[in-house]
Amino acid sequence: MSDILKWGILGCSKFALEHMLPAMQLAKNNKCIAIATSDTLKAKPFLEINSDINIYNDYNDLLNDINVDAVYIPLPNHLHVEWTKRAILAGKHVLCEKPIALNAKDIDELIKLRDQSGLLVAEAYMILHHPQWSYAKKLLKSGAIGNLVQVDGVFSYNNANDSNNIRNHSISGGGSLLDIGVYTFGSTRFMTDEDPEKITQTSINWENDVDVWSSVSAQFQTFKFLGVTSMRMHPRQEMNFHGSDGLIRLTSPFNPQVFGEAEVHFFSGKEMQSIKKFTTENHYVKQLETFYSTISTGSEYICNLEFSKGTQQMIDMVFEHEASSKL
Q: Which residues of the chain have pLDDT under 50?
């Protein structure tokens, strides 16, 4: 392939404008060359960032552009599987926003299409590209905190006054678990290389068939997990890995560019032993650079579809547990 991965974006989402297009401008070996939107007026702010972008008013026209190597999909959640399939069949590599599917079984077909095509298809799970996570995992695996006993995490924000937000609509695959539960669940699985054996407790608040707050407890093979996600609380994010001899805390684990400087705190004995700060890292840029290098070298992608399926399976287990508890 060429030394530039040429991207097309499906839709003019706010997230694509604020995070992914700027990242494509900064990332080595990456460039956005096309955007498809049903409303060309929405493309105007994108053109203010990069005036060379081609604008299509039909998604399929972008997929048929032979100059586009890869497609980024930030569409509403319920459209992710459909357009990921179409992009693969058009011969494009795909980076799709999370959740890439609304249930785990739908990811199986994406895995099959990926394997048949030889293309790179992945969920845009940007956090694993931030070096704080590889640092924290190395610390955990070193035995620095002894035996891992409990993992607890929280991710919250408040969009109660944003009635047009797709996260507040069940028809578009909204809800806090699909939107941000993927981070507390997935980061736990990444750090420990374990999957939950069972969900032991769920408590969910619903508004118009959308989960707006949840508390989830789970039993993994060697530790217990407790996670809280909410779209109705003051913004907060934190992950703690609590062992018999110490504690690892990530103070801004999921979107440090927005929430604050990423730090990994290590406690042992009666005091904090170290603070590792990550001041200038942009995980969106690193995600794109890793995507390119994976394609060019054939190396294994850190967040493959199998990993995404495992996290979605945990979300499916939560909803199944909640439904059975109401019987």
A: none
Assess whether 98 carries a catalytic annotation.
yes
Q: Are 6 and 24 in contact (CB under 8 A)?
A: no
Q: Give CA angle at 219 (194, 212), nearest 5°.
A: 100
Cα angle: 309, vertex 311, 317; to 5 degrees: 100
| Strands annotated E in 66-209 | 70-73, 93-96, 121-123, 148-158, 196-207
In order of 11, 65, 162, 280, the CA distances from 319 in angstroms are 29, 40, 25, 38
Judged on CB neighbours under 10 Å (0-12, 13-18, 19+), 18 is middle
Buried b / exposed e along 39-58 (16+ C-beta atoms within 10 A) = eeebbeebeeeeeebbbbee
pTM higher than 0.85? yes
pLDDT of residue 279: 87
Out of 92, 98, 137, 309, the active site residue is 98
Point out which residues pair with 36 in neighbouring strands: 10, 56
CA distance 291 to 244: 37
Phi-psi region of 72 (alpha: psi -120 to 50; beta: other; left: phi over 0): beta
CATH number at 131-280: 3.30.360.10
What's the CATH class of domain 5-126+285-301? alpha beta
Segment (H or E) for 323: helix 305-325
In the three-class reduction of DSSP (H, G, I as helix; E, B as strand; rest coil), residue 288 is classed as helix
Q: What is the pLDDT of residues 192-208, one digit of tens each?
A: 999 999 999 999 999 99
73-117, pLDDT tens digit by residue? 999 999 999 999 999 999 999 999 999 999 999 999 999 999 999
- Domains of the chain, residue spans: 5-126+285-301, 131-280
Task: Please report, to the nearest 10 degrees, the dihedral formed by the alpha carbons of residues 77, 79, 84, 87 taken in order.
Answer: -140
